[in-house]
Design goal:
Strand order of the largest sheet: 2-1-3-4-5
Strand content: 15-25%
Shape: globular
Radius of gyration: 14 Å
Number of helices: 5
Helix content: 25-40%
Order of helices and strands: HEEHEHEHEH
Structural class: alpha/beta
Distance between the termini: 32 Å
Amino acid sequence: MSDLDHHYWMSRAIELARRCPVVEGAFSVGAVIVADGAEISTGYSRENDPKEHAEEAALGKLDAADPRLSRATLYSTLEPCSERGTKERLPCTDRILRAGIPVVVIAWREPSTFVANCVGVEKLRQAGVTVIEIPDLAQAAMSMNRHLDLS
């Protein structure tokens, strides 16, 4: 996949992030899952429930046994979480690993706003997932989160 494709699909994820209901205690994130050059699922934060993450929403629309997942790329506007505030919800990095997605593309890494040290990228890479960062789209991916402390 070319850089041009990565920019196209990340821009699509950024569009989805703009649909998120804005809340004080959470990021607005968009996610797109692409396989064989086509969009197979999308999601955004709080799409179906107040605690839902974008990657969780997108993966939840696909059968866990979908063979396309093993050759898919997941685009997320923000680094997938490596921990959750509640034990009932699996972190998005774990969901991605369970799905067998080999490539994850992000626009920016999670700041320490809610989690002191997000290690989503490191956790994915340790498991053999290719993680690509697109820093030139970070500002656009952050734009719907300006109400939060992004330090």
